[in-house]
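Handout, section B. The chain below has 324 residues.
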Amino acid sequence: MATFAMQSLGCEVAALNTVQFSNHLGYGQAKGTRATAQEITDLYQGLKDSYLDDFQMMLSGYLPGAASVEAVGTIARDLKCKSTMKPGSFFWVLDPVMGDNGKLYVAEDVVPAYKDLIKDADLILPNQFEAETLSGVKIVDMDSLKQAITTLHEQYRIPHIMITSIAFPTPGATPSLSVVGSTMTSGATPRIFGITIPAIDCFFSGTGDMFAALMLVRFREAVNNTPGLIETDSWVSGDEIEATELPLAKATEKVLASMHDVLTRTKKQRDEELEKYHSQVGARDTEADVKKLKLVTSKAAEVRLVRNLDCLKFPEVKFKAEKV
C-alpha cells in the first residue's frame, strides 16, 4: 500500500520488502516469509553497486526483528552520511512499528533497537502505545501526551514527531480519533498541534502504511512551499513559525483529508458487500461459518486505494490543525 500511494503521487520508489506474505495479518492467517537482516542488507548493497542509491527520502516501516531494525538503521545512516555536505538533501521518515493497544507484537529486543535508532530519524510516526514505549511516559491525557513529545524531542533530539491514533475516553462524546504532532524549535522545545477527525466504525488494515506514505509526500510538498526550507537540516522551520503553520501541520491536514475520504468510501462498499453476503448465505453459526464470515469481512474491508486516486491527488481539507 505504501509503495502504491507514493508512486501515485509522483515518487520514484525502490521498495525493499521486509516480508513476503500472501495477505495482510488482519485475516488472522497468512503464508509467507520474513526477510532476514542479511537479505535486507544485500538488497541495499545491490542498489549501491549499481549506483542506484541516490535517494532523497527514506520511509521505514514494519521490521521483523532487532537485527532487521539495526540493518535498516545502517542503511539510513549511510544515506544520511552521504548528504552531510548538502543539508536537507536526505530525509528519513521512521515508523517504529512495535505494537498497539498496550501490547507488543514484535520481540522485546526490538524496543531497545528502536530506541538506539530514533535519534537519527528526521520524523517518527509512533502510535500512542509506541510513543509510550519509546518515551517511557504513560499517556493518559493531553498533559501526559505533551510530556511524551517533550521527552522525545529533548532526549533523542528528534526534529519532527507525529503521534497517531490517539483516543482518550470521553463519555458521551462523538467517537473520534486524533493525531498530535510537533516540530521542535532550535532549543528542542516542542511546537505541538493536533487534528481531530470523526471515527469510522470499521476495522481497516494497512492504514498506518497509508498514513506514513502520504505523510512523506505531503511533508516534502509543504516544505517545498516554504522558500529555502528544503535546504535546511531536517527541514526544521524557524522558531518564529507557530505550531499550526508548520509544514508538518499543513501536510497532516492533507493526509487526513485523503485518508478520511478513502476510508469513508471503503466503509460504504464494505457494508454493501456484507449485506449481499448475508442475504445470500443467511444465518449460520458453525465454527466453519464463523471463520468464513471473518475472512469475508476482512476482504470486504480492504482499503479501496486504487479506485479512489482522486482522494489521494486532490484532497479536500476539512479538518484543520489546532494549537495544543
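Note. The CA atoms of residues 56 and 231 lie 12 Å apart. Compare this with the example in section A.
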